[in-house]
Queue: 3 jobs
Job 1
Amino acid sequence: MELRRHQSFLDLPSTDWNRLVADADPFLDHAFLCALERHGCLGEATGWHPLPLTVVDDDGQLVGACPLFIKTNSYGEFVFDWAWAEAYARQGLRYYPKLVSAIPFTPATGQRLLVDDALDKHTEIRRLLAEGIVELTRETGCSSAHVLFPDERELPALRSAGMSHRVGCQFHWHNRAYRDFEDFLDALSAKKRKNLRQERRRVHEAGIELECIDGTAITAAQWAQFHTFYCDTFDRRGGVPTLTLDFFRAVGSALGARVHLVLAHAEGTTVAAALSYSSRHTLYGRHWGCAAHFDSLHFEACYYQGMELCMRNGLTRFEPGAQGEHKVPRGFVPTLTHSTHWIAHTGFRHAIDDFLERETPAVARYAEELSTHLPYRHSTSAT
């Protein structure tokens, strides 16, 4: 088998790449990655430079792959290492560029060492990819390598390659085969059940109507309206909207029924929108924007509509995005996420390992403590 590096996702065969993607993960779909590259979301402006790795067998068949990037900043990663970069700078050292395996601007857990588990040599291929990331870090002179939000099954290969393990915390909702939203509410304590009903009622009493449409039916005008909301959200927070309108249109067309847009209408005008994606088993909430504030509309469009979509489509898990302790009383369970890191500088590697040794139990305690505030009648703990 041979490890190869590439300068673009566009050069890789889509059918062979997608054959390695498990669970129809929308963010790992070749079309999603190519849309990022083709429509102005990668490159100098955003600091994400494609450098995908592949493994081919003796017959030249693609049997492994890794979505890899050279990064010149830490934006759009959701695993925060700004303090590490500042420590490097204080010592007169260069932290950027670095290597990152992740989905740009997307804090969703998924494969980072793509391989078909049906292959006899799937363990060896994962090991080859993990070791290849570290070796490429050395060859390119990058300060470090970071694998963000990998599937837990990939951790042994990444740790064996010498990478340090870091944990984070998100909040995920689990569909316990609920028949409908009322069935879900029945699983909550009386007080929490009342609170959620009140939030939904406020939206209804404000005269707001909601519709959920998938990528096969989203019109050009609806994409344009959504993108306006998306950009306004960043503008209000002083951020930069990195995903272009052409990107969203391309992904909607390519992924079709795996793209979901919730639109909120008041008096004939669209006042808010929330975008999510789905795999075979998981819904991923991604972007939200609104024209004005409406009480509880964010919870309705971003959370409760997503829960109902999971129930309708038989999806078992809902990842609504990074951070947000306010999700806990609405039924989202504190869930540990993972990343792995290889630091070229020996001194900093030891210092970061020491930091992670202290951070890991603190994150675990944080997740467990938040679990005591879950709204369910029966105990549910952090996962």
Job 2
Amino acid sequence: MNNKLLIALLSCIIVIGCSKREQAPEEAAPSTETTTTADAESAAPADANSTPVNAQKPDTLLNPDINPVEQNRRMVREAQVSFSTQDVVKTTLAVDKLTVETGGFVEQKNINFQVTDVETQNIAEGKIKVFEKVEPQAEMIVRIPSEKAADFVNQLLPLMYFMNQQQYSAKRYELKLLEEKIDQTHSVPSNTRNTQLNEISRLTQMETQDRVRYSTIALHINQPTLVRERIDVNINTVARLNADNFWKRAWNGIQYGWQFVLDLFIFLITIWPLYIVLIIGFIIFKAARKVLNRFKSK
């Protein structure tokens, strides 16, 4: 009887233990799902921030709508736009075409391929391969009719890959003219005649009026760094290969040595006053020595 009770008690304990083990994974499953979801949520912002951006530019640069406050005022509008593109030369040509279509003109254009680093490699006798790290840049100043300036700037967006900087200013004609005149008073010499001052003032006024009709837009364009490869001449190697042979160099050495002897001989002749001074000094020294010896003997 006792054995039967003992067996029944052990069976109950085993059944209770198995039921607890089955409940434990079921309770742990929601916590695992919660942890996985939290990890995914924490990893999502990191993935979004670490994704490289291939192109970054706004949808619009300038508002094409004219402010009602500016309609009855003469305004001098200026803008500066800096952006990156894939090809500086093609982009400047596209800007030229767009400027003409808008009714403006190009005031200044400068394309520069700046070399920032150079490495060389010897490939043959007297020849080297040159690798240059180049940063293409372009500076442009275009003049666009003021009423079309905003549309022109917005039409530059298809040419951009990255927008780097944008500046815009609009000043009243009278204030801009006053600013230009104040700047000229500092740059014009004080002895300038009145007629010249009047002419400078008239030209300043004409220039400012032209800025009212045509807005000034300055563009800075760059593109990714390029690596150029070219073959060049190693001047040191070429000079060494084309040097004279031994016998000719030896004969030249004899001639140079003889010329050195002649130059030295001429130099020794040139300092003849020094010889006279030395002779006189030697005579005085001998005479003084004899006199001193006589005094000592007495």
Job 3
Amino acid sequence: MSKPVPESLTLEAHYLHADRAMLGVLWLCLLGALGLAAWHGTWLQAMLVGGGTVLLAHILYALIRGSLLFRCFVAAAFMVMAALHINQVQGTLEMHFSIFVLLAFLIIYRDWRPIVVATIVIAVHHLAFYVLQMQEAGVWLAQGVTFGLVMVHAGYVIIEAGVLVYLARMSFNEAREGEVMGQTVARMIGDGSGVDLTCRANMRSPMLDSFNALLDTLENMVSGLSASMQQLGQLGSSVSKGASDLRQGSEQQQDKTRYMVQAMLELSQATADVARNAADAARASSEADKRAQDGHAAMQEIAREVASLENNIAQTGEAVDGAAQLAIDIDQVVDVIKGVAEQTNLLALNAAIEAARAGDQGRGFAVVADEVRNLSQRTAQSTSEIQDFISRLQQASESARSAMEQSRTSVHRCLQVTQSSTEILAGIVSEIASIVGRNAQIATATEEQSAVGEDVATHLHEVEAVALANTAEAVELDRLSAELEKVRVVLMRDAAQFRTGR
């Protein structure tokens, strides 16, 4: 059920208020009439006309107040009171000003019709009283009145009436606009549970058109506000979820960062240990390089000694070969001696045989022959021993030669191995030198890596601090999202009080 328009916003209420005010003006006019009655003794006129008019006004006020008829009666009553005052002062010209004053009072009604009624009444009064005054009927319009003066008065009254009619219509339109606006606002408020923004003023005027445009704008704004509130709710939920995710992510980042800081510190410590070990390895490699170079020099010296030994063995082999050749030559000579001994033995045997044949003459010769044979036998035996010795000498020489050949081969192989070892050791020396350089580079790199690790650990501490700050910001954002949701709920509740057609 719509809430009724407040009485103060209706024209009827305004008419009632104006009627009460005009009753007060009539009472003032009656008091004025009583005051003027003492001037020329017009008490009877004041009591009958003035008092009768006020009494009739009260009767009509009780019966038809707020109506057009009562407003027109008030207009006529004003002109009657003005005519009474003019007649009481015997037509004094200044008293005619009351006509214009009382006409102006009628503007309060914001109705042109009472003004027209008052104009007609005062016009009839002027014409009638002009005629009656000309006939000396005992009434007064003006001292020294002429028809021209009446026309001048009539002209001014018509002009003022015209202006007042225009102002009254303007005032009525404004009042009507206010009343329609009040009715529209009352329909908007309704029973007070909300504001209906679909209501519009059903009267066309620039002000009401602007008011309707304002309502259109408000309706669009509230509709947009409701939609924005819904979007804000969704956005708030998203922000709240994002804040929660951000807080969880920040906490996880903080944990991971703390773990990474610990890992980087351990890595930095391990890198420092590696750097120290690399430096130790570099020093050990340098020492190994020095020793390898010493070993390389020793191997070169061994190679030279082995080469010299090989040369000496070759010379010894040649000497053994020469000795073997001499043994062969001796064996050949011994063979010749053995052959001579065998022949000598054979000759001694033949000589002994011949000596035996010779008898005593050959006994001495036999003894010589026997000695010669014995000598030849011992020579053959010695020769056999020499041959046996030479044979053993040849075997020894052969064994020595074979051993020397084997030694020479072994020494040659040893020389080759030594040379290969020297080359390998040279390569090892080169590799060790490369390892020394790399170890130095590794030591330098690990030292730099250790410094970088410490720097990274420092930055990770800063990242941890940032993650902690992000966690705090996420918690604050979550709190603000909750506050935003509360504000949104309040705004939605307030916006729900405005009913729109969208």
